[in-house]
Amino acid sequence: MKFGMMQRQGSSDLAALDGKTFNLDKAMTIISFILLLIIVVIPIFMIVYNAFFYKGRLDLEMFRTVVFSKDNISAITNTVIIGVSVTVVGTIIGLFYAWLLGRSDIPCKSLMRALFMIPYMFPPFFGAMAWDMLLSGRGGYVNTWLMTHLGLTAPPFNINSLGGIIFVEVSYYFPFVFMQVVSALERMDPTLEESARIAGASQSTVIRRITLPLVTPAISAGALLILISSLAHFGVPAILGFSKQIYTLPTVIYAYIDRAGGSFEGIRQGAALSILLVFVVTMALILQKIVLSSGSYDIIKGKSMRPTLIKLRGAKYPLLLLAIVTLILIVLVPLIMIFLEGLVKAYGLPLVPENFTLDNFKAIASSKQTLDAIRNSLFLSISAGVLCMFLGVMIAYVVIKIKPKGKEILEMLSVLPYSIPGTVLAIGVILSWSGQLGINLYNTVWIILVAYMARYLSFSMKSASASLQQVHPSLEEAARACGASHTESLKDITLPLIRPAMIAGFFLIFLPSMRELTTSILLYGPYTRTLGVQIFALRDSGQIPQASALAGIAICIIIICNAIVTHITKDKRGV
Amino acid sequence: MANVRFENVTFHYGKHCIFKNLSLTVEESQILCLVGPSGCGKTTLVRCLLGFIKPETGAIYVGDRCLFDADRGINVPPENRHIGVVFQDYAVWPHMTVWENVLYPMKKMGLPKEEREARAHHALEQVRMTGYEDHLPSQLSGGQQQRVAIARALVSSDEVIIMDEPITNLDAKLREEMLNEIRLIQHDIGTTILYITHDQEAALQLCDIMAIMDRDGSLCQIGQDEDIILRPANRFVFEFIGVSNFFPLVREKDHTYLEAGGRKFPYDSCPAEIFASGKPMEMGVRLNDIVFDENSPVRGTIERIIFLGSEYIYFIRLGDRTIRMQSNALDVMQRDPVAENQEVGLAFLQPRYYEAKPEEVNAQ
């Protein structure tokens, strides 16, 4: 192995040996480093610098006032409460359904599995909007209905609470654990469990002592994703919490920036809070590592095998019912609610056919602002997707094939933004590109594009590197030996072989960019609203039916693109 | 047709020296098998020839073409070396059909379309892959993919083809078929072939000349197969080609003893000069060169007899060590039968004397 690695390094400086002045490998390496410096290092540096330095001097006063203000401490508490609760509940639910669909004989597995992935596709703030319409303390449809029919004096549900925020976030984040664990269960060698049964262990002992420890790495990876996403999440607490003055760190940062109206002081305060948010996320990561460092096992094989299914017997249909109810609750209800509300004449009117109209869609089609938002989002998502697709491939190629000195730094830098909350990234981008460094992109689409690229570059980079690792070096060498130059071998062999991963990488960026809210809400200018921002703003200004109609359109776009990406990733040509 | 010459080639990976001042010539229209244990530097040598890595010293020629010369600062890039190569994992491009795979090298050479297609047809015919033009590599078996790789190598160069362990992934029967095919193709077109393998049997079947490389990357012996088997140049070659038993020798009071399983047997047939250096010595003998001899003082008990059709294998206990010997079935029939648990005397034909390896001396 070591020998092989040394060989690869040997070939990397090949072009240099040929005595050429222009060297493609070297150029790509340098561009990768510069690029990551610009889109990752500078924003992070600017946040740290501005939080602690003022006019070139160390200034901790502002940091202290911001961090120890009473409001912000309650925001920290809320963030941690929501993050931890969502992680715990989401992990339990994800684990339960992963086991149910992966290991039991419950019917309609593949259909249910596909349905359980749906929440993963949609932005949680759509769900928050839907649930707000249904269960809001003031005039939520369900609350109103229950109050009139049961004669209650107070609304029975209140979604505008910590509990409500946790509920909505759980329903969108549990698929992280679900997907990780289902795939681990599928790849697990069933003989491991069977041997335990043969050795005399009972079914429950096997689950507790064999299955669970084996999928622990998958659980911990999924739980980590939930925790990071939830701590950094903006949409749900913003929609459900603002009306009741429930703030979390990301929403309080937004409030600071929004209130400051672009003034430098406000942005600085935002930067200080950002550092706090990064601190909370880092602490969570460390804590998680300590709690779950029980050791990982490498007995999970790559191949899919048929495990013995556990017979549910009498519990089969009750559990099926439970799964169906869960699906209806987390998938169907919010979706239907969004679509129906998009058709209704005015918010609060009963959802009956007499009140339905297409006026909301007409309003969208005739509103320049909304059309601009759609156009901006399409432009941003396609540009970010295409740029990141190529840059991701380039960085992956540098890391995996060229292996220059410092490739670990390159790799680390490209995945770093993934664990940086979008809010923080947005502040970093504002601080970097609004004139302090001589370039002012504020209020243009370009500043949003830079932020999207920083946020999503790791997606395409990961997708490309997984695929590049499959491309054996001898394939490129064979082309060289057949008379192709280095560039030609890249063009003829490597790029065609990783094309499916590149296209998948594009959609991995295009889809989340289309529904992005967290960073865009801090970066948009009067003419650069995005789809997410526009939906949020319409709702904020009380035009809830129109916001829902627009959300419905966004859902349709997402569904269509998702279908395309599934189709493309399936179609691999013998690689 | 051209010969391939390595002249004083040295290569290091970092501080680790792979080979030093290595010189080797593959004559025109010859198949030379470079044989050596895994990790000895065979593939590194090939990569130097192909231009994927650059040696520190020496020169590499194909015919009159200088591909590399450290002193003159010549280093032709891989794409201009025009050497056909069959990689260990075939490296058939999975996104191209068989036809596209074979056409690719000629496209890069800029051959006219008619000639390209004619040569591709011919090459596929030679490897008996006609009719598979439109198949993707994923639709072919390992053996078929390998033949495509050979066809591609054939069209890339009619001077020199390098094969780097191309048959290790095939089953025994297919392996033999492929070796025959390579031999036939080479016979037809007379390409010079440098064949790299760690499998001495494949080498023996295929080659005109064998070059044995030891673990330190130096060439121990270059010669025809009979030379190498019957007259191994050193202990490494002797041990590497064929299976053998080794016995430590002890010199005491002008007598030589052979040690086996904690016992000493008189062994005076061994020339006394071998102890001149004063170093501990060992005797090595091939399995087929051990015979039964009632008069021999080396005595053991037959533990087990295995009949393999053309050969008999005997496990013989000497003290607490069990050695293996092998006899041709025809010879066995012509001599007195032996049975398990019978005591026998053993004589050694063509014994070879070597210095004991340091670690074996320590063990004693």
Name the chain pair with the biggest interface and residue counts per chain.
A-B, 29 and 40 residues
Number of helices of chain A: 25
Rg of chain B computed from alpha carbons, rounded to a whole number of angstroms: 25 Å
CATH superfamily of the largest domain in chain B, by name, is P-loop containing nucleotide triphosphate hydrolases
Strand tally of chain B is 21
Detailed description of the structure:
The complex is a heterodimer of chains A (575) and B (364). With 575 residues, chain A is an all-alpha fold. Chain A folds into two domains: 63-352, Orthogonal Bundle (MetI-like fold); 358-575, MetI-like (MetI-like fold, Orthogonal Bundle), CATH 1.10.3720.10. Chain A is built from 25 helices and two strands. In chain A, strand 1 (53-54) and strand 2 (57-58) form a beta hairpin. Chain A is globular and about 80 Å long. By secondary structure, chain B is an alpha+beta fold. Chain B has two domains: 4-239, Rossmann fold, CATH 3.40.50.300; 244-363, Nucleic acid-binding proteins (OB fold (Dihydrolipoamide Acetyltransferase, E2P), Beta Barrel), CATH 2.40.50.140. In chain B, helix 2 packs across helix 3. The longest helix of chain B has 18 residues, at 172-189. The termini of chain B are far apart. The interface between A and B is medium-sized, with 29 and 40 residues.
